[in-house]
Amino acid sequence: MQTNVSKKLISFASDNYSPVHPDVMDAIVEANSGQAKAYGEDEYTKLSDDIFKKHFGESIDVYYVFNGTAANVLGLKALTEPFHSIICAETAHINGDECGAPERFTGCKILAIPSTDGKIAIEQIKKYLYHIGNHHRNQPKVISITEPTEYGTVYTPQEIKKIADYAHENGLYLHMDGARLSNAAASLNVSLREITIDAGVDVLSFGGTKNGIMSGETVIFFNKPDIGYNFKFIRKQGMQLVSKMRYISAQFIAFLSNDLWLKNAKHANEMATILENELKSIPKIKITQKVETNVVFAIMPKECISQAQEKYPFYIWDAEISEVRLMTSFDTKKENILEFVEYIKQLSH
């Protein structure tokens, strides 16, 4: 089948714009042979579970869902009752980009902390714990952090452990939105488990869609069989039980084998560093955040933005100060970056 759809789009809008990695596509095709048991009883899902345990440890429970919002919302629902509250950064995806789904489906109140770099610290969290036990107030139950943050900045394993210990000392859980966890691990040069289970995370939303997978995310429970016990029912009620699960789990087999997750993430991160360095050569552009993963935030001349977006899609982050977000992915090429930067130079003269 032939179409007239252009295959020449160069985008810095989102790593969701990237294609499926060939190894992942091959895994889907390979899984598409003959019949297999449904609802996760197939051999692909069993193998994928085993591979996850090699990365995160034997004492985990892995559940596959369709997308990241579902992973976050259902993971949080497993931890909470409707009278609870969830503490997160103001920039967190669960606060700003999930259309109120966490609040609607958990019934919990989101307590959003202002953050200049996407990260939150114990000093900011403390004031929300003063009313624990007060029956007039929502009861804090979960601290949710994003690794890397929406600004692309990363928590070190030590920072995560500090928040986890504080949460546990106060009877709270630590949830992690790891939609781009691979990029954080690549940036920190650590394993996936060093910034999750080893650092005290209780529940992880682990993503691959932004790093080469076609569709599918996972919810992982660490060392907490009690909190994950009912999740199979929560997932079903949440309309996220995948019937032909082999097509999701087969992708994760490829993704987590032969360091594909790491190679893809390293490349995306490296491209962002190149983009940052090239943009610094333009006097009218100001980089606004540390570039630690695969995203660059920059203030760009207002008169350049709309015209540049037509040729190279990207998002405006803060229209008031003309701050934009530029993302790279595993398929971004250096020549794409040089071409884009040259065009920006022309527009900004």
Written account of the structure:
The protein has 14 helices and 11 strands. By secondary structure, it is of the alpha/beta class. It has 2 domains: 21-255, Type I PLP-dependent aspartate aminotransferase-like (Major domain) (Aspartate Aminotransferase, domain 2, 3-Layer(aba) Sandwich), CATH 3.40.640.10; 260-348, Aspartate Aminotransferase, domain 1, CATH 3.90.1150.10. The strands form 2 sheets. The chain has a 7-stranded mixed beta sheet, with helices on both faces. Strands 8-9-11-10 form a 4-stranded antiparallel beta sheet. Helix 8 (181-188) links the parallel strand 5 and strand 6. Helix 13 (302-311) packs antiparallel against helix 14. The longest helix has 20 residues, at 260-279. The model has no long low-confidence stretch (mean pLDDT 96).
Rg from alpha-carbon coordinates: 21 Å
Q: What would the average pLDDT be, to the nearest integer?
A: 96
* Distance N to C terminus: 44 Å
In CATH, the topology of the largest domain is named: Aspartate Aminotransferase, domain 2
Tell me the total number of β-strands: 11
% residues in beta strands: 15-25%
